[in-house]
Design brief:
By secondary structure, the protein is of the alpha/beta class. 38% of the residues lie in helices and 18% in strands. Strands 5-4-3-6-7-9-8 form a seven-stranded mixed sheet, sandwiched between helices. The longest helix is centred in the N-terminal third of the chain and has 16 residues, at 39-54.
């Protein structure tokens, strides 16, 4: 998706002696002013830009905050900034993105992993010991970020990544190889359609949940993202409902379903869990204090007694 670049041409960045810390602050201000980013989000992106251009880790930026940037690096850094100001997502400029402190290849066929989605990984890691022998299914995996982050933590787990898109799975497989993981496999499937003869301790999903009439879809950055991974019918609940209704057939006794959902969907999502006989339902807030995750446990005897 091409976007007009007049905004980029408004900026002319002339080199001047400047430290890593000073440049980080300047970039944060530029991004906050010209894009719909919070100060926190602009700070994260400014850090990612410097790490990418300087080919360093975050620790280096902290330890060498007073080091001066040379002219070549300055030009490369500000070239990235000028692209970003056109509303092109930084992940598509860099062709990679960080999630759970891991780097992932990204393209236009997958959603950019959001920091708020790290909540799902946190919750699962909190629930189980890291040596647990788990069977985990990451439904609608996209880039594979959730499943791969779990694979790094649960080395004894068998992890399955599924997606309806063969192009998304190509990126997921690329990321599996990038992280040298042997406990992960992929399968092309429309939710549970091609998943047979398996039951899981954990099913986790960040499904499409945006209503097609949601004004947030007007955000220019979303023009670069696959619509099928964003938009769901029935006011955003169609895929959430399918996953909740079908998951009990694929969960082991005491298995848990973890779902991400929209900022205004927690009440109805909780009711859907209750209607489908999940117990021990928990809801958790994202970094902004908004409930964005619901989980529930499947217990066979509880399920049988309600039928």
């Amino acid at each position: 998706m091409k976007i007009k670049e007049e905004k980029r041409n408004e900026f002319c960045f002339t080199y001047k002696p400047i430290t890593i810390h000073e440049l980080t602050l300047e970039i944060r201000k530029l991004l906050s002013k010209n894009l719909t980013l919070t100060s926190r989000e602009a700070g994260i992106e400014s850090r990612f830009i410097l790490e990418h251009a300087l080919k360093v880790k975050h620790k280096y930026l902290i330890q060498h905050y007073d080091k001066y940037i040379d002219e070549d690096n300055f030009k490369e850094i500000m070239g990235l900034v000028s692209q970003r100001i056109t509303n092109k997502p930084l992940a598509h400029i860099l062709k990679e993105w960080k999630f759970y402190d891991l780097e992932f290849d990204i393209d236009e066929n997958v959603l950019i992993p959001r920091q708020d989605t790290e909540l799902l990984v946190d919750l699962i890691i909190k629930q189980y010991k890291n040596n647990a022998e788990l069977d985990i299914l990451d439904l609608g995996t996209g880039s594979g970020a959730i499943g791969i982050a779990l694979g790094k933590n649960f080395e004894n787990a068998n992890i399955f990544l599924s997606d309806i898109s063969s192009k998304a799975l190509a990126i997921a497989n690329k990321n599996i190889l990038r992280h040298k993981l042997t406990n992960i496999s992929t399968i092309q499937s429309n939710w549970f359609e091609n998943i047979t003869d398996r039951k899981f301790d954990v099913i986790v999903s960040n499904p499409p949940y945006i209503d097609k009439a949601d004004p947030h879809l007007k955000n220019k950055e979303l023009l670069y993202e696959p619509k099928k991974a964003l938009i769901s019918e029935k006011e955003g609940y169609s895929d959430i409902l399918k996953i909740i209704m079908l998951s009990p057939k694929f969960l082991k006794d005491k298995g848990i379903l973890f779902l991400e959902h929209g900022y205004n969907q927690h009440e109805k999502t909780k009711q859907l869990f209750l209607d489908n006989d999940f117990i021990n339902i928990e809801q958790n807030q994202d970094l902004n204090g908004i409930i964005r995750s619901t989980s529930g446990k499947f217990k066979i005897d509880a399920f049988i007694n309600t039928r």
